[in-house]
Each structure stands twice: as structure tokens, then as C-alpha cells.
Amino acid sequence: MSERRIIHIDMDYFYAQVEMRDQPKLKGKPVIVGGKASGRGVVSTASYEARKYGVHSAMPMAQAHKLCPDGYYITPHFDKYKEASEKIMNIFRGYTEIVEPLSLDEAYLDITHLVRPDLPASRIAQYIREEIFQTTQLTASAGVSYNKFLAKLASGMNKPNNLTVINYHNAHDILMNLDIGEFRGVGSATKKKMNDNGIYTGQDLYNKSERELIHLFGKRGHGLYNKARGIDDSPVKSTRVRKSVGTERTFATDVNSDEEILHKIHELSDKTAERLARIQKSGKTVTVKIKTFKFETFSKQKSLRDPIRNETDIYNIAYSLYTDLKDPEVPIRLVGVTVGNLERSTYENMSIYDFI
Ligand code: TTP
Ligand code: MG
Predict the structure, then answer these.
(1) CATH code for the domain of 326
(2) Chosen domain end from 54, 77, 100
(3) In this structure, how many other beta carbons lie within 10 angstroms of the beta carbon of residue 97?
(4) Which atom of ligand 1 is nearest to the CA of 34?
(5) Is 311 considered catalytic here?
(6) How confident is the model at residue 298, as a pLDDT?
(7) Model confidence band, residue 351 (pLDDT cutoffs 50, 70, 90)
(8) Per the structure, how many domains does the chain have?
(9) Cys-Cys link to 309, which of 144, 276, 283, 314 (CB 3.0-4.6 A)?
(10) For the whole model, what pTM was predicted?
(11) Are 179 and 200 in contact (CB under 8 A)?
């Protein structure tokens, strides 16, 4: 398999972080999100402050209460987590089409095609983390490497709010020192069997022959042998084809000035063009959305004969849609520009972003 660049992104203490964002008095406090302590509720997750008390995911709530009696206990708000999740997945898809979500808060991204000598994978990962924070006010950790196994390992190494790179220089040392339980696919039963056979670390695993591992673990033996060597050829499996690319912004205060709103639409058209260029797509529909100060949403769409992707074309159409849509009396709080009905770009409709 040729050289790849993979990012694994995982939000930090996800449910708890969302709750702490929305209730600032919880900042820096031990926060535990989960079911009720009565009955059989378990911990969904805990803030890092609560983890210091030994509280962790899947622990019975009653036990968490014993370990951390002064913690702040919150029942989950799944709609909020879902909303944040959609936002981050949307950000990922603005960078690459090859996104494999693993859960609400976690995904693999194959960004091989985006990397350039002046734009290393780690910088792209940093941009993604920044965009997540700007959009959701939540922090994420990222791991960057040349395969999925190592990217995921990396993202967990310096949590929370960090970026970790595993490359050909440091991979071997990291793997040799790794507890055997940290290898992907090694659950508690396998871990016990490993320990029974004298395997406690990556180094111990590395020292076993492939034949021995196949003898002990059957079909999985080959994969384990490779993991100890940092080899993992599994592809990032994207789960859906992207149908549109859009960007939206909420104003700090409700706005009624056409000049200001059109300025924003110009920026959003630029941003959308940039995203289209990254994924090498053009689209045949442009949609402008506005949300009024009363939270009513209106949108208007135009379908085109030929696909477009450059910032000027997008802006021109968005401009006319906006003038049709906007009521001069009504201040707005949010504006969005989306290009849909996507297809692969041809040279003629490329934008300046293709040449920088
Ligand atoms: P994780 O990413 O495993 O954990 P986390 O984001 O809370 O913390 P971190 O990544 O910083 O270690 O899981 C994501 C969310 O999934 C988590 O916030 C809550 C939910 N979850 C459960 O409901 N039950 C579980 O057993 C686990 C592991 C997670
Ligand atoms: Mg997480």
C-alpha cells in the first residue's frame, strides 16, 4: 500500500464537555454524565477532574457517587451531543470525503491527497481542531500517522486538547513501550491470554514469531504480528457520499444592514469555494439560508445548468438569492451559503484555491 496520511479525531470528555460549555459554573469541576444512581444507571463519561477520583465510563453510577460524592451529576442531553456531532462531522467533510465516523465524537480521516510539502498532515489536523473549537467551543484531540491503528493510538496519548504525531521515527519506541491492553482489538479476555503467555508489552509481542501468534490467537495472529510492527493496511471507509458543501455564521448581534450581511455572504462564498476545491467538486445548486432574530429560518435555492465552484460565481448567485429573500424590516442572526448537487470538477470551473 502506498504512503498514506491518516488523522484520528476524538472529542475530549465529550458529553461532559458539552454540559460544561453550556453551564459555565461547571468549569474545572468534577462532572459526571450518566443514568440515575437509583436502578442500574451507569456513567456515560466524566470530566478529567472527576477521572482523578477513579470515575470512568461504564462504571455503575452508585459507585461513582461513592468515589466522588461532591461531583456534579448530570443526566444526558443527547440532542445536544447529536448537534455537536453533526457539526464536527461536517467540518471533517469540508477537508476530505474519506471520513469514517466511529461514534458521535470520533472519526478517521484520510487526508493523503491534501498534504503538500508546505502543508504537513499535522498542520491540517491543527486547522481541524481550531475549526472545531471555533464552531462548537469544544476541544478535540487528534492523532496523525500513516495508518489507522497508529493515528488512533496517537490521539489518545496526550488527551485532552492535544495533537500527537506518530511517524516512522518514533513509532517503534512507542509500540515497544505500550501496554498490551492498549493494542486495538485486545480486550480483557485477550489481554489475559497474552499475560498468561508472558506478553505484557509491545516489545513482548514483537518478540513472538508470527507462527507462535497464529498458534495462540488463530486468524488474528497475523494482525497482531503486524500491529507490533506498526503495520495496518485497513482503509478509511467513508460511509456516505457528500451531497453539499455549506458554511454558515451566526452574528454576534442581530444585523439588519445589507452591507454587513453581504460582506458576510462574500466571506461564506469564499469559504465554500475553498472547501469545494479541497474535495475537487463543483455543484449545480446554490442555497442561501437566513435565520431571523425570532429564530425563523428561510432559504432560497437556485439550480444551474452548469456546475460552479469558484467564489465569484457562488457569490453572484448568493447575492441575488439574498436580495429575494431578505425582508428589509427584519434583523437576522444567521446567514448560510451552500452549494449542492455536487459532481467532480473539471479544469474549466476550478477556482483560485486550486492554484495556491
Ligand atoms: P469516548 O470518546 O470514549 O470518551 P470521552 O469523549 O467522554 O472522553 P475522552 O475521549 O476524552 O477520553 O466516548 C465518547 C462519548 O460516548 C462519551 O462522552 C459518552 C459516550 N460513552 C458512553 O455513553 N458510554 C461509554 O461506555 C463510553 C466509553 C462512551
Ligand atoms: Mg472522546
Answers:
(1) 3.30.1490.100
(2) 77
(3) 18
(4) 23
(5) no
(6) 93
(7) low
(8) 4
(9) 276
(10) 0.76
(11) yes
What residue owns the CA closest to ligand 1's atom 7? Answer: 13
Is residue 238 in a domain?
A: no
Report pLDDT digits (tens) over 164-180. 999 999 999 999 999 99
CATH number at residue 151: 3.30.70.270
- What the block records as the C-alpha cell of 210 is 508470527
**CB atoms < 10 A from the CB of 162, how many?**
17
- Write out pLDDT tens, residues 212-250: 999 999 999 999 999 999 999 999 998 777 788 999 999
Mutate to test the pocket of ligand 1, among 9, 14, 49, 164 (most ligand atoms within 8 A of CB): 14
Domain housing 262: 244-355
| 305 within some domain | yes
* Binding site members for Mg(2+): 10, 105
46 alpha carbon, closest ligand: 1
> Quick one: which ligand is closest to 15's CA?
1
* Upper half-sphere CA count for residue 294 (Cβ side, 13 Å): 4
176 part of a folded domain: no
Looking at residue 147, the DSSP 8-state letter turns out to be S
- Ligand 1 pocket: which of 33, 45, 105 to mutate (most atoms <8 Å of CB)? 45
Asked whether residue 315 falls in the same domain as residue 274, the answer is: yes
What lines the ligand 1 site, CB under 6 Å?
A: 10-15, 44-45, 57-58, 103, 105-106, 159-160
The C-alpha angle 317, 89, 18, rounded to 5 degrees, equals 115
